[in-house]
Fold:
Amino acid sequence: MSSGALLIQLAYVVSAALFIFGLKLLGSAATARRGNTLSSLGMLLAIIAALLDQGIVEYQWIIAGFLVGGVIGAGVARMVQMTSMPEMVALYNGFGGMASLLVGAAALDSSAGTFTLVTIVLSILIGGVTFTGSIVAWGKLSETFGSGAVQFGGQQIVNSLIVLAVLASGVMFCLQPDNPQWLILMIGLSLLFGVMAVIPIGGADMPVVISLLNSYSGLAACAAGFAVNNNILIVAGSLVGASGIILTQIMCKAMNRSLSHVLFSGFASVSSEEPVVEGEIKPISVEDAYYVLEAASNVAIIPGYGMAVAQAQHVVKELTELLEKNGAEVNFGIHPVAGRMPGHMNVLLAEADVPYDQLLEMDDINPRMETVDVAIVIGANDVVNPAAREVESSPIYGMPVINVDMARTVFVLKRAMASGFAGIENPLFYKDNTRMLFGDAKESIGGLVRELGNG
Amino acid sequence: MDAVFLTFILMLSIFLGFELINKVPATLHTPLMSGANAISGITVVGAIALAGTGKHDLANWLGAGAVALASINVVGGYMVTDRMLAMFKKKEG
Structure:
């Protein structure tokens, strides 16, 4: 190894250490920002080291690529609304996958041995599936394609055939690497498989899907690292892969569903009988809600994706301040799958200046629910559905939920009577202690804020 | 030998990743994912060498495309993560 090459390898070691230390600092909200900066320095170092490679004879295409990607990346990062973070992460997963596919394909040369060929197959397969899968996930999240599950008879058989065809073309490619048709066939089939794998998954399962695709984008980088024989790609790629897998597990557990269940069967196919719901819906006016809230000394707010859609997080913060001024204790209960990606609600509330120590996880807020005077559910539905505990025939039976029905009074803010993203009836709305506050969440809370401000 | 060595690195990094990420609190999961997006842009390092061969063949163009895509992830991922993390504040007093 020449001294130049040795220096490059040493730089990769330092950059791997920076990635690791950066992730370690992400373990606490107080140090997380510093962690992100360290991680970005690690990336900068790795890029500089890569640019010093002896094999590089011209720089214009590298610079052109940097400029195009950097401008797009910076523009999107500045403009993106926090509400749209799931879509953005989905798209970025896809770009990562595509980049690895391209690197894998470009790494092919006539001298490649069998091991390299196999890793090229893997980076094309994982990268391709990640790319089209993420595009479909993005389409569903942004409702460009409609968020429903697309299912048809014999779907699993078709998908199994595609998997077999991908594997077969991969084997043929390894046997005849000089014949480009196998490579092209494999790329095409991988892209097709990504689409087929994500279309049967319904909108409510998107937090699982983007976590999983996040993991794939890392594994694709890993495979590309094997293909071009580069340590830092393997280290960084597997850190991302592990992160995505952990998030996937957390999401699945929070929905009481196994990963294979999420991937191979939509919600719709599970549910057959309508749960019997007793009782009646009791609407409440903003004014009456105010009287109840004014007397409350312990308030819990349970936000869901509906809060993001109504852009209500800022008025929610105002409401929180007024209630605290009124002497009430206010906490937020965040369900792991509230919103459309892990931690989505936390970011939206952080944007509205709600301090993170006021955001309680499900397991922390549930034991206190009986002491809560008023639980305010804002645009959440399935994550507070008591059917998950009580109705065995419900498709979400067994899913851990926030037990708002244990609070003395529950206000449910809802645009109109309709079931949630998952399309499941919610008996919470019919409980004796539940009051429905119909209308746009932002306007309803705005009304409460005015009443409290005057009172 | 190279293959074994690289697989060894893979195995250790995955275990390390599990240990590190398990300690990330739920409140930071969105920044964790966007930060992971940025790290998965590490593919840019592999793409740089391919985009700079000067051969002007197919592999060269694929490499340049990969540099562009991976830079979107790197630049966009780190910037948006920083933007988010700047918003996380502890309760005063």
Summary: Residues 267-273 of chain A have pLDDT under 50 and may be disordered. Chain A touches chain B through 112 residues (CB under 8 Å). Residues 114-141 of chain A form the longest helix (28 residues).
